[in-house]
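Quick note —
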Amino acid sequence: MIKKLLTTLIFVSVATLHAQPSVEKELKDIENPEQADAFIKSNKSTKNKLITFNEEKHQTVLAKSLFKKNVGSTEVVDREFEKTYYKVVNKTTNTYNRVSYIYLDGNKYNMTDLNALRAQIMANYKDGAPFDFLAKRYSMDAGAEKGGDTGWFTKGKLDTALENSLTNNSYALNDLFTIDLPETNRYYVVLKTHEPKEISEIQVLKITEKK
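Predicted structure written out below.
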């Protein structure tokens, strides 16, 4: 019985020793997000993931360290019961925009009343009312809960017609303006809160193995 147990333990130890070099070897062969995705699909585990880190949003020690690495570089986090590998497989820089808006549904107002309401909102803002307060009070979509703040967004993330108007370069920082989209009965009061910003993103393959 003891002999059988010892044999089993030796087998498990040998298997563990061989598993680690295997992970490291497979990582060396992964050079882009497509290969990383294929690896995840062929090695199904909830702990194996392809993660996107945004330099603006992710400020952890790990994220900052990964942003300093080149594509193809790996970082290893060694814990008591598991070892996690992070390999940078892609790095890009995208232009992000950010504004705050108040949305008014044209189906709920005639144009005379809608324009009067927008004029009132803009006058209140110029008189010192915070825009986020006005958005929470008047905006007619879920963005009201965030004070109308879109957060940082790239092209392709919003409705095309709205996005083209929001990213119009003719507006300066802190400009207050209106947008009319009569085809879909959507009308806006918009505050340009930020200048466009170049933000780096990295895609990282995360692989976790038990020791």
